[in-house]
Design brief:
Layout lengths: L1 H9 L2 H6 L4 H7 L8 H13 L3 E6 L7 H21 L4 E4 L10 H17 L4 E3 L7 H12 L5 E6 L5 H10 L3 E5 L14 H22 L4 E3 L3 H13 L8 E5 L4 H9 L3 E8 L4 H10 L3 H10 L2
Parallel strand pairs: 1-2, 1-8, 2-3, 3-4, 4-5, 5-6, 6-7, 7-8
Helix pairs in contact: 1-12, 3-13, 5-6, 6-7, 9-10
Bound molecules: flavin-adenine dinucleotide.
Flavin-adenine dinucleotide (FAD) binds next to strand 4, strand 7 and helix 12.
Length: about 300
C-alpha cells in the first residue's frame, strides 16, 4: 500500500510544488542526490572514481512541452559531455525520451537522441536511454532502434516487471543493442506487469541469464542494474558457470543506495557504475525511491524531528 501511495505522490503536481520547499524533505533527498547543480554531480563522480566506481549522469526531470524545451535538454547534455571532456572525466549520460520530445513526436526524440549519440561518440562516450512507464515502451523501442541503426554507443533500459520484456529483450539483442536491466519503478496494472515481487525477481534472473548467454556468444556490453545483492550473487554464480568473466558485464546502482555493496563488488573485480542524479526536479524521482523502500521514510522522519 505504501508503495502505491508514494507512486501516487510522484504524480501529484501539487505535492511537487509544496514538499520541495520544506527543509526536512530537502535534507532527506541529499542522501540520493548530491545536489541540484551539474558541479555537485561532477564532484560525486570524482569521489566515486576515487573508490574505483564508474558513473553515469542524469539530470532529473520528465516531460517537456515544446520542441524548444526538448532542444534545451539536449543542449544541456551536450554541455555535460563538453564539461567532462574539458576536465578529463568519463561519466556516461542517461536520458529520458520524454525530456527529448517523445510526447511531441517520435521523430523529435529520435533527432535529439541521435544528436547526443553523435556528440558522445566524438568524445568516446556513451548514452543510456531510461525506460519510463509502460505507455511509452513501444515508442521508446522504436526510437532506440532508430538511434542504434546509426550509433553503437547507445544502450536501453528494460524493466523485468513487464510481462512483455522477454520479447523486447530479443528485439534489442536482435539489433546488437546494449541493455540496462532493471526491475522497474512505476505503478503498472497486473495485466501489464507482474504484481508479485517474487515473479519480478525470477523474471529478472532469467533475463539476466539470457544477457549472459548473449555476451558469451556475441560479446558486447550489457548492464545489470539492481541493488538486490542476493539476486546479484545468483547472477554472478550463473556468470561464472557460463564462463562469463566479471568485466564482461557491468553492475549498476543508484547514488546513495547500497554504497558499501558498490565498493565491495568493485573490490571483488566487478565493473560497477553508479547513476548520479542532479537537478531541481527531483520530487517525482525521490517519491519513486521512497516507494521502493518504505524504510527510507524513517530517514525522512528523522530529518523532520531533527529540525
Ligand atoms: C542504474 C539504474 C538505472 C535505473 N533506471 C531505471 C529506468 O530507466 N526505469 C525504471 O523504471 N527504473 C529504473 N531504475 C530503478 C529500478 O527499476 C528499481 O526501481 C530500483 O533499482 C529498485 O529495485 P532493485 O532492483 O534495487 O530491487 P529491490 O528488490 O527493490 O531492492 C533490493 C534491495 O536494495 C535496496 N534498495 C532498493 N531500493 C532502495 C531505495 N530506494 N533506498 C534504499 N535501499 C534500496 C534494499 O536493501 C532492497 O532490499 C534504475 C535503477 C538503477 C540502479
Amino acid at each position: 500500500m505504501l508503495r502505491r501511495f508514494f507512486l501516487w505522490c510522484s504524480e501529484s503536481g501539487w505535492l511537487a510544488r509544496q514538499l520541495p520547499q520544506m527543509p526536512f524533505v530537502r535534507r532527506s533527498v541529499q542522501r540520493f542526490v548530491p545536489g541540484e547543480k551539474l558541479d555537485d554531480a561532477l564532484g560525486a563522480v570524482d569521489r566515486l572514481g576515487e573508490a574505483g566506481l564508474s558513473s553515469v549522469l542524469t539530470r532529473l526531470g520528465e516531460h517537456v512541452h515544446s520542441e524548444e524545451e526538448a532542444a534545451a535538454v539536449a543542449a544541456h547534455y551536450v554541455h555535460v559531455l563538453e564539461q567532462e571532456e574539458a576536465t578529463g572525466r568519463a561519466a556516461e549520460i542517461s536520458v529520458k525520451l520524454t525530456q527529448l520530445g517523445l510526447e511531441q513526436s517520435t521523430a523529435m526524440a529520435l533527432r535529439n537522441l541521435r544528436h547526443l549519440c553523435a556528440e558522445a561518440a566524438h568524445r568516446d562516450n556513451f548514452v543510456w536511454v531510461d525506460m519510463e512507464d509502460s505507455s511509452y515502451v513501444d515508442q521508446t523501442l522504436e526510437v532506440y532502434r532508430g538511434a542504434r541503426a546509426e550509433h553503437d554507443n547507445v544502450g536501453l533500459c528494460l524493466q523485468a516487471y513487464l510481462r512483455r520484456t522477454a520479447a523486447d529483450l530479443e528485439t534489442v539483442l536482435g539489433v546488437h543493442g546494449t541493455v540496462r536491466l532493471v526491475k522497474g519503478a512505476y505503478d503498472e496494472p497486473a495485466d501489464v506487469a507482474f504484481p508479485d515481487k517474487a515473479d519480478v525477481d525470477e523474471n529478472y534472473f532469467s533475463l539476466a541469464v539470457r544477457l549472459l548467454e548473449h555476451i558469451r556468444e556475441e560479446g558486447g556490453r550489457q548492464g545489470l542494474a539492481t541493488h538486490d545483492v542476493g539476486l546479484l550473487e545468483r547472477v554472478r554464480t550463473a556468470a561464472r558457470a557460463a564462463g562469463v568473466p566479471p568485466h564482461a558485464y557491468e553492475i549498476q546502482m543508484l547514488y546513495g543506495i547500497q554504497p558499501e555493496a558498490q565498493k565491495r563488488l568493485a573490490a571483488e573485480g566487478e565493473h560497477v557504475r553508479v547513476l548520479v542524479s542532479y537537478g531541481s526536479e527531483w520530487f517525482a524521482w525521490y517519491m519513486r525511491r521512497l516507494a521502493e523502500r518504505p524504510a527510507n521514510v524513517t530517514f525522512v522522519l528523522r530529518n523532520l524531528l531533527s529540525g
